[in-house]
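Q: Structure for this?
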Amino acid sequence: MHEEYGGVVPELASRDHIRRLIPLLERVLVEAACHRSDMAAIAYTSGPGLAGALLVGASFAEALAQTLNISALPVHHLEGHLLSPLLGKSPPEFPFIALLVSGGHTQLMRVAEVGEYELLGESLDDAAGEAFDKTAKLLGLGYPGGPALAALAMKGTAGRFKLPRPMLNSGDLAFSFSGLKTAVLTIVRSRSLDEADKADLAAEFQEAVAEVLATKAIAACRKHRLSRLVVAGGVGANLRLRERLDAAMAKFGGKVFYPELELCTDNGAMIAFCGAQRLLRGMVPESRGGAFAVRPRWPLNELAQAF
Amino acid sequence: MRLLAFETATRRLSVALWLDGELLQRSADMPNSGSEVLLPWTHELLAEAGISLQQLDGIAFGAGPGGFTGLRLACGVTQGLAWGLNIPVAPVSTLQALALAAGDGDTWAVLDARMNEVYAATYRVAGDGVTELTAPVCSPPAVLPAPTFSVGTAVGDGFAAYPELQQRAPGLTVCPDQWPTATAVARIGARIFANGGGVTAAEAQPVYVRDKVALTTAERLARGGVR
Ligand SMILES: Nc1ncnc2c1ncn2[C@@H]1O[C@H](COP(=O)(O)OP(=O)(O)O)[C@@H](O)[C@H]1O
Ligand SMILES: [Mg+2]
C-alpha cells in the first residue's frame, strides 16, 4: 500500500490498522487454538510511533481488557525489538549489549534485565534504516528501500566508489548517517550512473553502514566487558551487516544473537513476549479505570518511570 | 435494550447509556484527551445505572465524518468492547446525530472539516427518525450546494467557521453551537437495532468522507514534484 506513495502516509496506515485489527486477531486465535477468555492480559504498543496508528491498538486493547477483566499492558515498541532475540531457539542470557537498528532508531544499549536498559549511544541524525530508505530512493529503488538496496548491493563491488565512514573514530558510541546519504546524492548528481555503477554505489553504501555499526557495536561490548551482542530491528536483516558483526564478534570471543528473520521487522509477537515477561515479573501498571494515553515520542530510558 | 454510545468526532466528546429510552450522558469539551475519559465515563454511567458491561446489548458510535483521530478512538473502543462482549455495533452518521440535536424538520447539518472544507448533508428529522435527503460530502464551503428546502434548521459549527454559508439558505434558523452528541447517537442506534440492523465489531468502521489524504508518487510527479 505505502509503495505507491513512496513512503508511509500516517493517515493511511491508521486507516489500514483499524480495518485489519480484528480479522488478524481472529486468525491468530484460530491458529493458536485459543479463545478470547484464555487471554491473561493484553499487551499493546503504546509508543513510540505514529500517533494515529498507536491509538488504534491502544483503544482496542484497553477496551477489550475491560470486558475480559484483565490487564492491558502498554509496551514500548523498542523494548519489543530489544527482547525479540529471546524468542529464538538459543536465546542469550542477561546481561547483553543490544544494537537496535530500525527505520526510526539506531541505538546501542546495555540490557541488564527485562526493564533495565541503559542507552550507550545513538544516531545524532538519521537512523540506519532511514539512511537505507533514503539512499534507495536516490537510486530510484522502490519502497521499502532497505531490502531493495541490499539486493542491488549483492550485484556490486564495494570500494569502487568511496563513501565516508561517519564518526567511525569519534571515540564514543554515537552515530551519524545523514552525511552518507548526502555523499551518495553528490555522486548521483555529478554523473550519470548505469546499472553496474548503481550496484557498486549500493555495495559501498551498505559496506559503510555495516562497518560503522559493527565497529561501534564491538566497541560497546569491549567497553562493558560483555561477550553477548543482540541485534534487533529491520536493518538487522541485512546479511552484510550480519557477516561483519559475526566476524568481529568471533575475533573478540563473543557471539551475536539475532531474532528469527520474520521477527526482525515490526511484529506483534515481540510485543506479546514483552507483555508476558512483564506480567511474569508482576510489572503491571496501576489501572486508571480504563484511561489510557499513547506516547508517540517516548525515550526508552524513561521506561522505568512507567512502572 | 441497553446500549452504550460514543461520539468523539468533534471537540465535544460524549458517552451515553441508553436504557429502554432512558438516557444518561457524560460530555465535555476536550479535544485530544478522549482516551483519558471514554472508558472511565463508561464505568461511571454503568455504575450509575447499576449494571455491568456484560449486560449491554449493543454499542452505537458516531462513525463520522469528523476528526480522523476522534473517529478512530470511538471506533477502536467500540470494536474492543463489542468484540470482547460479543455484541453488535450500530455505526451512526455523526451528521445524522447533529441533525437529530436540531429537532424535528428539515436540517442542513454542516461541520467544520478544517483545511477550508466542511462536511455537510441534509436530513428530515421526525422524533428519533432521521431520513437522509442528501448524502454527506466534504467540500469547500464556496461550492457546497445549498439545500433544496427553504424552511428548517442550519446546524453545526460549519456555520460558525463559515458564516457566509448562512446567506445560501436565508430561510433557515441557524444553530451554530449545536454538537453531535452520544445521546443522539444512542437514540439513532437504538432505532437501528430495533429495526434488526447492526454489524459485527470487525465491520464497525469509521466513515471518513474525506478520502484524499495524500498524493501518490505518480501524482506528485505529475504536479512537477520530485521523487
Ligand atoms: N535487508 C535489509 N537491509 C537494510 N535495511 C533493511 C533490510 N530489511 C529491512 N531494512 C530496513 O529496516 C527498516 C524497517 O525496520 P523496522 O524495525 O520495521 O523499523 P521501524 O519500526 O523503525 O519502522 C526499514 O528502514 C528498512 O528499509
Ligand atoms: Mg520497529
